[in-house]
Amino acid sequence: MSGYVSRYAPRPGTIEPLGEHGRTVSAAATEAVSIELRRIEQSFGQNRVLRGIDLDVPAGQFLAIVGKSGCGKSTLLRLLVGLDRPTSGSLRFADRSGDTVEANARTVFQEPRLLPWARVVDNVVVGLGQDVDENTARVKALMALDDVQLSDKADQWPARLSGGQRQRVALARALVSRPGLLVFDEPLGALDALTRITMQQLVSRVWRELGFTAVLVTHDVSEAVHLADRVIVLDGGKVALDLAIPAHHPRQHGDPDLAVFERRLLDAILGGNCCELTVGPITSIGS
């Protein structure tokens, strides 16, 4: 999917280089893009959903977006992947030298959305579009399946896979074109707890190896903290908190240092000292 710049008429202004993430990546690394949003407004009729969003995301950063239902998370996500255009404001993508580029954005959804009549490898090929010859497409699809440790299932039917395996195929389909921006829209919400942790570890590894810019929307604060370099809280269409997570990757569940960030985020979302008033940890927000 093309970035916002390529789909709509250019808007005034330019983008400045947003810096390096500083992470070592593999030779198969993607062309990560930086994101610049300026005074983004989005309204639907009289409903003002986004209110003056200003945000800079450096190339290769992993950003998570959390907040209560209706805060504008999904609306912002749709703008990033070019499904909608803002009512006002500007959105730009840039390469590492600061030049405005198309984002080559892909999305991983909560549901795998696989074609049941196509084998696993052919589902991944779908992510390449129609301009790649059959042999090249299969080679690239097998490489993407190897990225998600599922190359041995290439000729299986989707119905024979577990829920976690189907979601890994969906991730491979998004990765096969080596996107500069990968957007995760609650991709692990339907998985059981243990599979979800395994998938979090997989997403973290693939991001570290390939170096794409990642944006995750989730209701799970623990997931956001374990995956992201940075978490923003949206409230009423505005950025209520912009929190850096400086811990090294990969991260471990149960790390008490990460729990501090989870509490800060929950306080920002739910208000007050919510974690002190409940028995046991709260890590997710109702959808």
UniProtKB/TrEMBL annotation:
<dbReference type="InterPro" id="IPR050166">
    <property type="entry name" value="ABC_transporter_ATP-bind"/>
</dbReference>
<dbReference type="InterPro" id="IPR027417">
    <property type="entry name" value="P-loop_NTPase"/>
</dbReference>
<keyword id="KW-0472">Membrane</keyword>
<dbReference type="InterPro" id="IPR003593">
    <property type="entry name" value="AAA+_ATPase"/>
</dbReference>
<comment type="similarity">
    <text>Belongs to the ABC transporter superfamily.</text>
</comment>
<keyword id="KW-0067">ATP-binding</keyword>
<keyword id="KW-1278">Translocase</keyword>
<dbReference type="Pfam" id="PF00005">
    <property type="entry name" value="ABC_tran"/>
</dbReference>
<keyword id="KW-0547">Nucleotide-binding</keyword>
<dbReference type="GO" id="GO:0016887">
    <property type="term" value="F:ATP hydrolysis activity"/>
</dbReference>
<dbReference type="InterPro" id="IPR017871">
    <property type="entry name" value="ABC_transporter-like_CS"/>
</dbReference>
<keyword id="KW-0378">Hydrolase</keyword>
<dbReference type="InterPro" id="IPR003439">
    <property type="entry name" value="ABC_transporter-like_ATP-bd"/>
</dbReference>
<protein>
    <submittedName>
        <fullName>Aliphatic sulfonates import ATP-binding protein SsuB</fullName>
        <ecNumber>3.6.3.-</ecNumber>
    </submittedName>
</protein>
<feature type="domain" description="ABC transporter">
    <location>
        <begin position="35"/>
        <end position="261"/>
    </location>
</feature>
<keyword id="KW-0813">Transport</keyword>
<keyword id="KW-1003">Cell membrane</keyword>
<dbReference type="GO" id="GO:0005524">
    <property type="term" value="F:ATP binding"/>
</dbReference>
